[in-house]
Amino acid sequence: MSYCVNCGVELGDSEKSCPLCLTKIIHPGRKIKPGEALYPPHGHASDQRVSRSGIILILTLIFLLPTSIVAMADISMNFSITWSGYVLGAFLLLYLSIVPPIASKKDLPVLFIVIDAVCLSLYLLLVEHMTGGKWLVSVALPIILGIAAAVSVLVTLARKAKLVGLNLFAASLFTAAFLPVLIEWRLNAAYGLHRFFNWALYPFVVCLILGAICLVINRNEPLKKKLARKFFL
Amino acid sequence: MNTDSPNWMRLDNAAKIYPAVRKRSWSAMFRLSATLNETIEPRVLQTALAATLKRFPSLAVRLRRGFFWYYLEGIQSVPAVIQDESYPCKRMTKDEIRRCAFRVLYYNNRIAVEFFHALTDGSGGMVFLKTLLAEYLSLKHHTEIPSIEGVLDRNMEPNPGELEDSFFVHEGDIKQSRREEKSYRLKGTLEPDRFLHLTAGTVCLSDILPVAKRHSVSLTVLLVSIMIAAVIDIQNKDISHRRRQKPVKIQVPVNLRQFFKSETLRNFALYITPGVDPRMGDYSFAEILKAVHHKMGGELNDKNLKAKLTANVRSEKNLLLKIMPLFIKNVALRTVYNIIGETTSSVTLSNMGIIKLPPEMSAYVKRMDFILGALAKNPYNCGVLSYGDKLYINIIRTVREPVLEHGFFTYLRKLGIPVKIESNRR
Predict the structure, then answer these.
(1) In the predicted model, is pLDDT for residue B4 greater than 60?
(2) What tens digit of pLDDT does each residue of B229-249 get?
(3) Which class does domain B197-351+375-423 fall in?
(4) Are B40 and B109 in contact (CB under 8 A)?
(5) Is the pLDDT of residue B344 over 50?
(6) B8-156 sits in which CATH class?
(7) Which residues of A touch B (CB under 8 A)?
(8) Do B86 and A16 make contact, defined as CB atoms within 8 angstroms?
(9) How far apart are CA B276 and CA B250, in angstroms?
(10) Is the distance from CB of A91 to CB of A66 less than 8 angstroms?
């Protein structure tokens, strides 16, 4: 009969250390014959799990199927990559936004947001190049960077500062408020549409006020409970 | 196997969720076992299983897919008894459930049965185990074991009441809202190979019952309160900011056969979730006991349970849900389960109560156990039963750290109750 010196519980004869606190069992000056184990030893790995590399291989093959057909069709008709460039670029963008998070063993959401932003920018660069436009640097790139920065900040706040519920929703509204301002600013600068903001201030003000309302509700516990009671689904 | 069992059966009301939310890495399982004074003979056990299964057409089944619902189909051959593995309640794969949705296992002196929860609940499973055990002992020792204390007569035809879906039989007029506040979720490092750690605590009833009596509460109330106290300690260490803490609630399954007339061997249980909200302040153990005692006292009556049961039955009768193809239904049920299924409690504690055997059997049986398999996301579960003069508490976990067990069993020690601990080690 053994006892854990830490927890004070009696231990089964087959235990080599306390199952509760993992303290090693010591029998000073005597040898104890090990008792019958409660369960057979864990000898074989019974679960066969699909490996990450296996999932990536399957995904790669799935992506190769439509892309290779589209590329072959384009080349057979036009003897070069023409319209299929859009499709191939879009599939590559999708692939790069799905595969790195699966391949990574670490949980790095901000890094993947940055990768997604870079990939999207490159895809739009391709589209701009193929259509002969001049809108990437002046319009699309600032918007993509703005959205990526906003999402990164929100993810960081939710994870590091443990921002949840209405607080997180309020923070999302505050950051979303600046998005239409950014869009209209870049459109005005690129195409000279208006001298000052024309429409972006409406969603800007609405988002700011809604965010403030969420913060107020979150701080007022009785009001929060009353609203939850009135509006539950 | 030649039985007069119906060829197929609908899943009962409580069972419907289990196949829908089953995953590759998890299926809802529970285990009942009996440890004898002698080593188990697999051949005798196999013969006993063949003889016993005829009496349990609702358990000798496999799960099949229909267009609108899953259903249970009688199996044609007796499943082979298998050697126990290093951990209990191992998940059943889709193929296993399609072949036979329960297992019979043996290891040294122990016979165990593990069920996919869609077949039955603890009470139905216990009747099966007792009857299987009676058949095994009669074959082995040529003794006559009477059909009392939950042992069924293997030579009798199954009673239609044993196969009924009692939820529908006892549906009422008023339904109760199922809306509940979320509870604190325990965390830990998941075992990559899904190994389940079991910590089995044995307590003398003569040590613990006086403590419950001293506090004027039942044994279940005492155990649930200790569990709540242990979870509160863990939450205090995890989230120091009181306003960010969450209520601590324990899911306690209720055997509805105690409240409604039913002989069913299928699922017939509901849950209540007693608990406290630590955001309101520090609770003394006496206050936790009081909160749990009154919550359980207030909810455990036939009227309240009927209203809860009715809400579940009405959901199943919903025409929109009925006409939805199974694959859409599965997505819907899975989504609902992921959002609210396990969020309203920190851990489940199921007490099967006192298990009695006919005296002719109890002479051979030294121990009984009830192990509730892990849930999909909540990392701990606890199954309890009393047999002879002992209380057997089995805590299972999917994570590496034995945090809850440590808190729970050392709390028992603090109350002056000696505990013996055993475990399955990797």
Answers:
(1) no
(2) 999 999 999 998 999 999 999
(3) alpha beta
(4) yes
(5) yes
(6) alpha beta
(7) 4, 7-12, 14-16, 18-22, 36-43, 45-47, 49, 162, 232
(8) no
(9) 9
(10) yes
Name the strands in the sheet holding B61-65, side by side, starting at the edge strand that comes first in the sequence: B8-10, B70-74, B61-65
CA distance A172 to chain B (A): 20
User: pLDDT tens digits for A120-160?
Assistant: 999 999 999 888 888 988 899 999 999 999 999 999 998 88
Enter the tokens of residue B31: 């285990």
Whether A229 shows a pLDDT value over 70: the answer reads no
Q: Which pTM does this prediction carry?
A: 0.72
For residue B179, what pLDDT is reported?
Answer: 86
Model confidence band, residue B376 (pLDDT cutoffs 50, 70, 90)? confident
- B108–A162 CB contact, under 8 Å: no
CA-only gyration radius of chain B, Å: 21
Checking if the pLDDT of A107 tops 90, the result is: no
Tokens 């440590």 identify what position? B406
CB pairs under 8 A between A and B: 94
Alpha-carbon torsion (B246, B334, B370, B221), positive or negative: positive
Find the range with the poorest average confidence among A18-32, B35-49, B50-64, B395-409.
A18-32
CA dist B195 → B91, B377, B399, B425 (Å):
10, 14, 9, 10
Lowest mean pLDDT among A116-125, B36-45, B173-182, B400-409: B173-182
If interface means Cβ-Cβ distance under 8 Å, which residues of chain B face chain A? 25, 83-88, 90, 107-108, 179, 192-195, 198-201, 244, 402, 405-406, 409-410, 413, 418-426
- Enumerate the β-bridge partners of residue B422: B200
User: Under a CB-based contact definition with an 8 Å cutoff, are residues B212 and A69 in contact?
Assistant: no
CA dist B423 and B426 (Å) reads 10
- Tell the residue number behind the tokens 């979320």, with chain if given: B182
Q: How confident is the model at residue B187 (pLDDT cuts 50, 70, 90)?
A: very high
C-alpha distances in Å from residue B273, one per residue of A30, B224, B300, B363: 48, 10, 11, 37
Mutation target for B interface from A4, A9, A21: give the one with most B CBs within 10 A: A9
Mutate which: B114, B390, B423, B426, vs A, most A CBs within 10 A: B423
Evaluated on CA atoms B369, B370, B376, B380, the torsion sign reads negative
Range(s) within chain B of domains with CATH label 3.30.559.10: 8-156
Residues of chain B with CATH 3.30.559.30: 197-351+375-423
Asked whether the beta carbons of B181 and B340 are under 8 A apart, the reply is no
Q: Which of A147, A154, A183 lies closest to A171, judged by CA?
A: A154
Q: What is the pLDDT of residue A50?
A: 67
Evaluate whether ipTM surpasses 0.85.
no
Confidence label for A49 from pLDDT (cuts 50, 70 and 90)? low
Single-letter amino acid, residue B337: Y
Work out the angle between the directed axes of helices A201-219 and A221-231 (0-180°, nearest 10).
Answer: 110
Task: Please report which residue ranges of B259-394 form alpha helices under DSSP H.
Answer: 285-299, 302-317, 319-323, 326-336, 359-362
